[in-house]
Write a structure and sequence with these properties.
By secondary structure, this protein is of the alpha/beta class. It folds into 2 domains: 4-125, translation initiation factor eif-2b, domain 1 (Four Helix Bundle (Hemerythrin (Met), subunit A), Up-down Bundle); 135-325, Rossmann fold. It is built from 9 helices and 14 strands. It has helices at residues 40-48, 55-72, 77-88, 95-105, 112-145, 168-177, 194-206, 218-223, 249-259, and strands at residues 4-7, 19-23, 34-37, 150-153, 183-187, 210-213, 229-232, 236-238, 243-246, 263-266, 272-273, 303-306, 313-315, 320-321. It has a 7-stranded mixed sheet with strand order 6-5-4-7-10-13-14. Helix 6 (168-177) links the parallel strand 4 (150-153) and strand 5.
């Protein structure tokens, strides 16, 4: 099933008038719950609560959100502008949310029908992108690691973070289908356990052999020879190749460099942001302390920046960028 889509009736068929349906990722793995989103306020709440998350899925959410806004505020230009801004800024770090919303919003002068057509295009491009990344990434992993590698991944990069297949986890799935994967270590991804909850749920559904490890164990497992490569996604890739991704990514990159392992980033071309020169220019979302502890104050950055010189390669739906050879996004 699709992580997010536009729906007009119980059969799930798309159309010009309707609502957004998305998998509530906060309920997994205990319950597969689908949310019906009929207003911009509901969508913004779903984005902020991480009911929908992952850069590509957020891009689709942004585009469909503007389609909702075009109908909800058809007779209220000021309300429409405020709604589009609220969608764009619901989470600040991932570039896809704002770019998806702006892409759909550019069609607002042509009316709601044109906006929804563009949102469908964003969705369909993300589906095609996942398919292309899975194949291109699997070929690169096989080239760098040989047959049946053992991979470590971080956060969730499967169909839940896109629409269907995924980014880095899509590569894992493709290797599994080819019989070219020995197994996966999924980092828990604290504090909200997207790896232990979401990645583990997807890997189990695919029948992939995996183990869950606490985040801090990753570099040690690499040093001990239990990992052949690190593969993960990105919320933003800067012009110089710096990678902004879930907190903990930087530590895994350092561990991979120390162990001499490939560190591979898989993300759609839409995540490459040529307008951001480097990671220091990115606003890092800081989430509430209650996600970490109820006993004291806490610092809770949701993302970190991995310097480009620690990245072996970036795989998008269009190309492989070998940063280890001096190539740039």
């Amino acid at each position: 099933m699709r992580t997010i889509d536009w729906v007009t009736d119980a059969s799930g068929h798309g159309g010009d008038a309707g609502w957004i349906e998305l998998i509530d990722q906060t309920a997994l793995p205990g319950e597969l719950r689908v949310l019906r989103i009929a207003t911009v306020a509901e969508l913004v709440a779903a984005i902020r609560s991480l009911a929908v998350r992952g850069a590509p899925a957020l891009g689709v959410a942004g585009a469909f959100g503007v389609a909702l806004a075009a109908r909800q505020f058809a007779a209220d230009p000021a309300g429409l502008a405020a709604a589009v801004h609220a969608i764009e800024t619901a989470r600040p770090t991932a570039v896809n949310l704002a770019s998806g919303a702006r892409r759909a919003a550019a069609l607002l002068p042509r009316g709601p029908h044109a906006v929804l057509r563009e949102a469908y295009a964003v969705r369909d491009e993300e589906i095609a992108s996942s398919e292309a990344m899975a194949v291109r990434g699997a070929e690169l992993v096989s080239e760098l690691c040989g047959p049946r590698p053992r991979l470590l991944t971080h956060c969730n990069t499967g169909g839940l973070c896109t629409v269907t297949i995924g980014t880095a986890l899509g590569v894992v799935g493709e290797l599994h289908r080819r019989g070219a994967l020995a197994g996966v270590i999924a980092s828990e991804t604290r504090p909200l356990l997207q790896g232990a909850r979401l990645t583990a749920w997807e890997l189990a559904r695919w029948g992939v052999e995996f183990r869950v490890a606490v985040d801090s164990a990753g570099p040690f497992l690499m040093a001990r020879g239990e990992v052949d490569a690190v593969i993960l996604g990105a919320d933003r890739i800067c012009a110089n190749g710096d990678v902004v991704n879930k907190i903990g990514t930087f530590a895994h990159a350092l561990g991979a460099r120390r162990a001499g392992l490939p560190f591979l980033v898989v993300a759609p071309e839409s995540t490459v942001d040529p307008g951001t020169p480097g990671g220091s220019a990115v606003e890092i979302e800081d989430r509430g302390a209650d996600e970490v502890t109820a006993l004291s104050d806490a610092v809770n950055p949701a993302f970190d920046v991995t310097p480009h010189d620690l990245v072996t390669a970036i795989v998008t739906d269009r190309r492989v960028i070998r940063l280890d050879r001096g190539e740039k996004p």
